[in-house]
Design brief:
There is one protein chain. By secondary structure, the chain is an alpha/beta fold. Helix content is 32%, strand content 17%. Among the domains are: 24-60 and 341-456, Alpha-Beta Complex (Flavocytochrome C3, Chain A, domain 1), CATH 3.90.700; 95-151 and 238-339 and 461-516, FAD/NAD(P)-binding domain (3-Layer(bba) Sandwich), CATH 3.50.50. The protein has helices at residues 11-18, 27-43, 53-60, 86-92, 121-132, 170-180, 187-207, 239-253, 322-329, 361-364, 384-396, 416-422, 426-430, 432-439, 495-516, 527-538, 557-561; strands at residues 21-22, 25-26, 71-73, 83-85, 95-96, 110-117, 140-143, 160-161, 232-233, 258-259, 264-269, 275-281, 288-298, 334-335, 340-347, 368-370, 402-403, 409-414, 450-459, 462-464, 476-478, 483-484, 546-547. Strand 1 (21-22) and strand 2 form a beta hairpin. The longest helix has 22 residues, at 495-516. The protein binds flavin-adenine dinucleotide.
């Protein structure tokens, strides 16, 4: 029960506290669940047809990317004039966090050949392959904002794509991906992705990853949204955790230097456009560290914690767009920043897990999206943007969604169908993470459906690269979610964990090659920040915003108003 706080407890709070829950759901939701149960066996052998291209186009008008508002034009830098989400542009049009007076650039704390910023799958893979390509461990430095592995990578659930089955081909993987990306993908980079994919699976196996197999030893094959064959490799519903486990073990066995809780707050340049290092900042002590590096790889992940258009998110706390901001400060070109990926199936109930991911693999294993009347209304494996839009349509245009006690809307994902189609025990075997998450709230996903609504999931675009992760700026590479081009305007499931390892490896190899042949004396300056500030001023941008933001701020105005001065 909620405690009375004078008169502050609202009627709504009281009502919620008194609400009777049956198997985790309030009674009124149970009425709709009953309808889902009544139609379940009829729906077992029925799947709504996939949309035609015209139907896809129509429903996409409801996607948050297309809905009015939410975007504007960028007014400075190489991408001036491009349209992007306001939340991202606000960071690109913000003042740098530090100025020259804040740091002593002649006092170098670390001097390294290759600096890697961000230790998710992309950064950790890059470090291993730089070492594998001949750079000594002492000449590599991996730096982390949080702990090594506190990243989106370890949260990946569903799987990793690779065209390595007899009925599949690299060509097919390419076509599926470019179709899903609305034909905006960068062809040479996409080519590298699909070509290297089978090698990456073999590499993971060699490192000891336990990838799901059938009784006969064949890989378990799963569909992903927008794939024309079953192409996913999975490790139950914790694929990223398993992939990261073996990759981080390999990294640690090689004893590559790694520091934690030191976010990069600015890159350094030689004053003539080449990146020559970075300024790190200790999250706990506020101390700065200066790193000099011949080559720098940004592997800082995405921007899910910007909560674009107010959506909840699947992402970890460090996903605040830092890499895109840092790269833009030094003049790197971006691409496809106009599109954002909302995963169709984020948890919409209970409130404690709103926005958490429910892997697409649930749908590819038989779970069906259904409305409040128990009707199946969409092909379950449309590309993510189309699937998400059709959920929005069902809830907000057709009014066929279910409203939660806190006023959110969602549609049912009929998970009990999974065991009806695959046999008893399947959910425990394939989705232990999902079972645990809902068990905490007394919801048994084997028996009851779960309520879902789109959630902010992925940064489709980012820093433009060549097929080796090299950016338009000398001395700077990027790998993983921070990059743009490979997924075009909409990433397909299973192509991101793949992209982190393909381009992490490529960036590691490419920087190793670069540093071998590069012995120029490196100057460390913050000249680029001065130029950036000038551009902001010339564009008339007056703001007290500073970026990168490093962590999301969940303190509301009321909390900030009560803040004790000394901590401000
Ligand atoms: C819940 C969830 C499920 C997913 N499921 C799948 C799936 O099944 N298949 C698939 O292909 N993809 C999936 N994805 C997407 C995929 O996991 C990520 O896109 C990918 O792992 C990103 O890897 P990365 O190495 O680029 O970034 P991350 O793994 O996010 O790592 C980036 C690291 O950089 C750090 N960092 C950020 N800023 C700074 C800074 N300023 N200084 C230093 N360090 C910094 C971060 O803290 C983090 O540790 C999923 C994502 C989520 C969130």
């Amino acid at each position: 029960m909620l405690k009375e706080k004078g008169n502050q407890t609202s009627n709504k709070e009281k009502k919620m506290a008194e609400m009777k829950l049956i198997g985790g759901y309030p009674e009124y939701m149970r009425k709709s669940i009953k309808k889902v149960e009544e139609t379940r066996m009829k729906r077992k052998d029925y799947t709504p047809p996939a949309f035609t291209p015209e139907e896809q186009k129509e429903v996409l008008q409801l996607h948050p990317d297309f809905a009015p508002g939410g975007k504007r034009k960028l007014s400075i830098g190489p991408n001036k004039g491009d349209v992007g989400p306001i939340e991202v542009l606000d960071l690109l049009e913000a003042y740098p966090l530090i100025e020259e007076k804040d740091v002593n650039l002649s006092n170098i704390d670390f001097s390294t050949e290759i600096l890697i910023i961000g230790g998710g799958l992309a950064g950790t893979t890059a470090a291993i392959w730089a070492n594998e390509s001949g750079v000594k461990t002492k000449d590599i430095l991996l730096t982390n904002k949080l702990r090594h592995g506190d990243a989106n990578s370890i949260m990946a659930e569903g799987g990793t794509q690779a065209a390595d089955r007899p009925n599949d081909s690299l060509f097919r993987h390419y076509l599926d991906t470019i179709g899903g990306g609305h034909y905006a993908n960068k062809p040479d980079v996409l080519n590298a992705l699909v070509n290297d994919a089978p090698f990456i699976i073999q590499w993971l196996l060699k490192l000891g990853a336990i990838i799901d197999r059938e009784e006969n030893g064949d890989f378990v094959e799963k569909w992903g949204g927008g794939t024309s064959v079953r192409r996913l490799h999975s490790c139950r519903d914790y694929t990223g955790l398993e992939e990261f486990r073996v990759i981080r073990d390999e990294f640690r066995n090689r004893e590559i230097p790694c520091i934690e809780h030191y976010p990069t707050v600015e890159l350094l340049t030689n004053g003539k456009g080449r990146v020559t290092g970075a300024v790190l900042w200790n999250i706990e002590t506020g101390e700065y560290k200066i790193v000099k590096s011949k080559a720098t790889i940004l592997a800082t992940g995405g921007f899910g914690r910007l909560h674009i258009r107010g959506f909840p998110t699947t992402n970890h706390y460090g996903a605040t767009c830092d890499g895109v901001v840092l790269a833009y400060h030094v003049g790197a070109k971006l691409r496809d920043i106009d599109t954002v990926q909302y995963h169709p199936t984020g948890a919409a109930y209970p409130i404690q897990i709103v926005g958490y991911l429910l892997t697409e693999k649930l749908r590819s294993s038989g779970a069906q999206p259904v409305n409040k009347d128990g009707e199946a209304f969409v092909f379950p494996l449309e590309p993510r943007d189309v699937e998400a839009s059709s959920f929005i349509k069902e809830c907000y245009v057709k009014e066929k969604g279910i409203t939660t006690p806190t006023g959110l809307r969602g549609i049912w994902l009929d998970t009990p169908l999974i065991e009806i189609k695959n046999g008893d025990g399947y959910i425990d075997k394939a989705f232990p993470g999902m079972r645990r998450m809902y068990n905490r709230f007394d919801i048994d996903i084997r028996k009851d459906p779960v309520l879902v609504f789109p959630t902010l999931h992925y940064q489709n675009g980012g820093v433009e690269t060549d097929p080796w992760g090299k950016t338009s700026v000398e001395g700077l590479w990027v790998a993983g979610e921070v990059s743009g081009g490979v997924h075009g305007k909409n990433r397909l499931m299973g192509n991101s964990t793949l992209d982190t390892m393909v381009f992490g490896r490529r960036a590691g190899i490419s920087t190793a090659e670069y540093v071998k042949n590069n012995n120029t004396t490196l100057k460390l300056t913050l000249e680029h920040t001065k130029k950036y500030i000038k551009q902001l001023k010339d564009a008339g941008i007056k703001t007290d915003r500073r970026a990168p933001i490093l962590l999301p701020d969940y303190r509301g105005k009321a909390v900030l108003a009560r803040m004790i001065d000394v901590f401000q």
